[in-house]
Design brief:
33% of the residues lie in helices and 18% in strands. The protein is built from 11 helices and 15 strands. Strands 7, 8, 9, 10, 11, 12, 13, 14 and 15 form a 9-stranded parallel β-sheet that branches. A 4-stranded antiparallel β-sheet has the order 2-3-1-4, covered by helices on one side. It has a two-stranded antiparallel ribbon with strand order 5-6. Helix 3 (107-120) runs parallel beside helix 11. The relative contact order is 0.13. The protein binds phosphoenolpyruvate and manganese (II) ion.
Length: 352
Amino acid sequence: MIIILKPHATEEQISHVVERIEELGLRTHLSRGSYRTIVGVIGDEAKALEAPLRAISGVAEVIPVLPPYKLASREAQAEPTIVDVAGVKIGGEHLAMIAGPCAVENAKRMDEIARDIVAAGANILRGGAFKPRTSPYAYQGMGEDGLKILRDTGDKYGIPVVTEVMDPRRVDLVADYTDMIQVGARNMQNFSLLTEVGQTRKPVLLKRGMSATIEDLLMSAEYILSQGNPHVVLCERGVKGFDKATRNLFDVASVPQIHGLSHLPIVVDPSHATGRPDLIPACAFAGIAAGADGVHIEVHNCPEDAMSDGPQALLPAQYHEVAAQIRKLAAVMGKMVSPLPAKTAAAQPASV
Ligand code: PEP
Ligand code: MN
């Protein structure tokens, strides 16, 4: 950490800063310029971060040298983390293809959609049983019945499943049914929820909050990691923009940025990022070209009947085409769509 003192800070103020640092068991290195003095702090930066050093009179700025997300940072681990979702790998050269309807609606529909997305090459089936809706009057999801349908469908087609949990009290219930727990954008900073999912050992799909910075997202991941759960996959799903042309603003630059800052895998969600089926393919490709570790797309076989997010859903045939293009692009990027666990590998199309 570097502490920059105000111009003309007094000798008394400088020694007070040094004393406070030494009280924390750390050492200092003073650099006296003609205008300002800079105090370098040597030792465990976390200790110095706990003290409100910026509040000491004479201090102009406190600049940490290390990122505050210790476990999620590249400094902590140079190699990319590879998360294993019931046999499907995400990260490094392994690509996730997460697809399915926004919400689990009924067993028949789930079955048809799962059949189609597996045939198209998806490797994780999604479907919300607990839906975070802006309006309390909108469809809230099927609850535990939806979890059962998702589990049974996933088992039938041999594809791992992911579903959202909203309530810390339901983490155990959801974890019993799913292979991966989704923490949605609206809950990215629900710290009790993050702590709870951190106490499980299930892989977590952590979506970026709609007004969260990249650092906020990584700090939320840190909550999960610090509880001992290392299986975190980040998801860029767009942030609030000013232009109503798209549902959110797809921040594709976050993908290479996060890869520079963290070893955690990151997938892109062009469905929620754009809210527009016509833009989903291009944004999915952009995500892969930017180095994303997977693509998360909502698919529905009758979008006009969908209980939620129908207007942004791709039809199975459209998904089929996008998936084929993604496999080609993945090869260019030196990646490969992770195959389904062995027993159903025959259901997958040959990789391009
Ligand atoms: C979803 O995945 O259906 C969802 C609600 O996503 P987000 O949290 O990104 O809005
Ligand atoms: Mn949705």
